[in-house]
Design goal:
4 helices; alpha+beta; 3-stranded antiparallel sheet; 111 residues
Amino acid sequence: MEKTLFEIIPEVVQQAPNFGYYNTTALRGPELAEVQQKAKSQTEAVLAFFQRHEGVTFSAWEAWKYMKLRNVPITSIRRAITDLVDAGYLVETGNLRIGNYGRKCKCWKLK
């Protein structure tokens, strides 16, 4: 059985040392553990989405929309994409698409 992204987390962290939740609000203890787990789950879900659609490019808004993650902020999807790019799982395509606010957004695909 193939390992999940978080079973190989030490290798991923070496490739992207800031991977996961960015603790800008100095959370601690159980509260920090909870948001770290959410960030990991979101990142794993984004990776699984791109793996299911290998060869297809998506903007962060498109991934958010097609994954039906209405309770997840777009910033969390963007963080997950950035982490997955830094870890070598996704690549930026150079394509731009119009996002939810009428502005151009970058697109990514599975590496």
